[in-house]
Design goal:
Number of strands: 12
Strand content: 15-25%
Radius of gyration: 19 Å
Helix content: 40-55%
Distance between the termini: 61 Å
Order of helices and strands: EHEHEHEEHEEEEEEHHEHHHH
Largest sheet: 10 strands, mixed
């Protein structure tokens, strides 16, 4: 039996049905050897028995609900480094694999040692003709980020991008010593963009590959709420502080804050809280976000 050179790291959070469908799609679709490492970021203690009853060969780790996206993935990345896997694939549990989508990505990393990470063209689960993301862009003068959503404009099926969405990232493990693991100052959102910047600063490429496709249940793993607004803005402020000189980052942060405060009244309290807390806290936990949600109801 060929030893697996790729460890697929899946964070379980939300519906167990999504994780089971993701795992089943991997078993049906992938032909190259791989192992699966599931990190439970939820509070359900029965997850392990349910998953292993259907997929007994998975490696399981219970991280608990206080663990954010970056921290959960880092648990898997450390395991991959300790066990000598050549590649790690970070994969959302609300994705569904298409026919051997992994092979084009590993082929890219095998053929070009300057590529640090590679990702697929990700389509909507409910409409496999509509592109959700083919990597993303980061505006160097504002720190704004967004997704590439039109492959037709590309001259090649492999494109250098500024970052890859956290839904699916294949990373070459031997470069982690140089670029580090994902930054855990972000609980959820922008850690993948931050990571890509570290890779590109180290001289590596970040690429998306149209020959690899994946389906994504967009929006399943998050919800629009005061704590989500708070988390996204706090992370935006942190991102600007980490990647721009102080005078420029402060100017951009104030601009973002002013723009958000002009929106609906329901966004003002989490905006102010996010602005203050990005100075006070270097990291947050889910219980912190729950407290933000409770306080937001009392502030109305």
């Amino acid at each position: 039996m060929t030893a697996a050179k790729t460890l697929i790291i899946i964070l379980h959070f939300g519906a167990i049905e999504d994780t089971l469908e993701c795992l089943s799609s991997l078993c049906r679709s992938l032909v190259s050897p791989f192992d699966v490492f599931v990190v439970n970021n939820g509070s359900d203690t029965e997850v392990e028995s349910i998953l292993k009853s259907r997929h007994p060969n998975i490696i399981y780790y219970n991280a608990g609900p206080e663990t954010g996206f970056a921290a959960g993935n880092n648990i898997g990345l450390r395991f991959a480094l300790e066990r000598g896997y050549r590649y790690s694939l970070l994969l959302n549990n609300d994705t569904v694999a298409t026919e051997d989508f992994l092979q084009p990505l590993t082929d890219l990393l095998e053929s070009d040692p300057t590529i640090a990470t590679a990702g697929p063209a990700i389509y909507y689960y409910g409409d496999n003709k509509q592109l959700w993301s083919f990597g993303g862009w980061i505006r160097s003068w504002t720190g704004r980020i967004g997704s590439v959503t039109n492959i037709d404009q590309l001259s090649s099926d492999v494109a250098d991008v500024d970052y890859l969405p956290g839904a699916c990232i294949l990373v070459r493990n031997d470069i982690l010593e140089k670029i580090g693991l994902m930054s855990e100052v972000y609980f959820l959102c922008l850690e993948e963009a931050d990571w890509a910047i570290q890779a590109r600063k180290a001289g590596y490429r970040v690429v998306a590959c149209a020959r690899s496709t994946l389906l994504h249940k967009v929006g399943v793993s998050s919800r629009f709420s005061p704590e989500l607004i708070y988390n996204m803005l706090r992370n935006r402020f942190l991102f600007l502080s980490r990647h721009f000189p102080i005078p420029i980052s402060l100017f951009l942060i104030v601009g973002v804050l002013a723009n958000e405060l002009r929106k609906s009244a329901g966004r003002r309290w989490p905006c102010w809280r996010a602005f203050k807390d990005h100075f006070r806290y270097r990291s947050v936990r889910r219980s912190h976000l729950d407290a933000v949600y409770s306080e937001s109801k009392n502030s109305v």
